[in-house]
């Protein structure tokens, strides 16, 4: 036990620093997602419902659209927290240009270094978003579109780490397996920071509202005395339900807050959640159908 404790106090095993993520221009997406959106924008002269839905089930495209919408040129720098607001502000032409600049994930991903099922991760993100938005509407008193967007991009840091720095993430996974700790602890020990902090760094560098990073930083352990704790708890509950209903992220080592604790934090009874469940599952099914990922 003493050796293990000493190991935990060791300096990070990599020279990777958080500021490396400030220079990232975008996150890559799945080729199927890019093709679907380009086909939809090519056949529509206005920002119709189907195009908005396709965009908002893709975490990489969501981050890119939010980044552009929060630039000063559109008049609301650092104020657009939801993808729905961003899509309405930009319009189809600007969104199509953003999608054309979105790289394909296969150009970066090296399976020999790291084995990640990105299709599974994308589906998990989309379904977590759908459930988060639904919970926000049922609970009331919060911005359900921000809940939706937060649920969609909650694993943005994972995407950035695994795509651009797969060796560092592989070392964290190896440390996690050898020492039986959770992923966030393993990342801190091997890299010096977690994927939650990576997402915060990108959100800050890209000019997105701090509300989004506040949610992501605490969704694994939301606390009532912190800013935006309620949306963080909603995302945590949505993520748990997505896993329970057969759509996990595929990533090992997450120590999530128990559902009963999240329900208590949000003031939701188990009976209420059971009553909402059929509708929440419809939202999840709709997101799955809309993503059209094979």
* Nearest-integer average pLDDT: 89
- CATH level-1 class of the domain at 114-291: Mainly Alpha
CATH architecture of the domain at 114-291: Orthogonal Bundle
Portion in beta strands: under 5%
Please give the alpha-carbon distance between the first and last residues. 46 Å
Radius of gyration: 19 Å
- Main sheet specs: none
Helix content range of the residues, please?
55-70%
CATH superfamily of the domain at 114-291: Hypothetical protein af1432
CATH topology of the domain at 114-291: Hypothetical protein af1432
As residue ranges, the low-confidence spans are 1-8
Tally of individual helices: 15
Q: Using the alpha-carbon principal axes, give the shape.
A: globular
Tally the beta strands.
0
Run of helices and strands: HHHHHHHHHHHHHHH
Structural class estimated from helices and strands: mainly alpha
């Amino acid at each position: 036990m003493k050796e293990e404790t000493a190991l935990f106090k060791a300096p990070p095993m990599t020279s990777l620093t958080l500021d490396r993520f400030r220079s990232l221009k975008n996150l890559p997406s799945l080729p199927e997602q890019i093709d679907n959106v380009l086909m939809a924008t090519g056949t529509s002269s206005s920002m119709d419902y189907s195009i908005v839905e396709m965009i908002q089930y893709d975490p990489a495209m969501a981050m890119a659209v939010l980044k552009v919408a929060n630039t000063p040129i559109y008049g609301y720098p650092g104020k657009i927290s939801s993808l729905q607001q961003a899509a309405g502000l930009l319009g189809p032409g600007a969104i199509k240009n953003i999608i054309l600049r979105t790289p394909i994930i296969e150009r970066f991903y090296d399976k020999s270094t790291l084995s990640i099922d990105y299709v599974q991760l994308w589906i998990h993100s989309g379904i977590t978003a759908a459930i988060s938005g639904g919970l926000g509407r049922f609970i009331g008193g919060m911005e359900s579109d921000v809940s939706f967007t937060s649920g969609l991009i909650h694993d943005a840091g994972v995407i950035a780490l695994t795509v651009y720095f797969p060796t560092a993430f592989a070392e964290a996974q190896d440390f996690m397996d050898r020492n039986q700790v959770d992923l966030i602890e393993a990342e801190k020990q091997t890299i010096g920071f977690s994927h939650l902090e990576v997402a915060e760094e990108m959100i800050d560098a890209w000019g997105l509202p701090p509300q989004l990073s506040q949610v992501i930083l605490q969704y694994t352990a939301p606390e009532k005395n912190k800013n935006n704790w309620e949306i963080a708890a909603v995302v945590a509950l949505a993520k748990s339900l997505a896993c329970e209903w057969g759509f996990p992220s595929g990533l090992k080592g997450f120590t999530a807050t128990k559902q009963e604790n999240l329900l208590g934090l949000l003031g939701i009874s188990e009976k209420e959640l059971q009553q909402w469940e059929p509708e929440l599952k419809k939202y999840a099914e709709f997101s799955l159908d809309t993503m059209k990922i094979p």
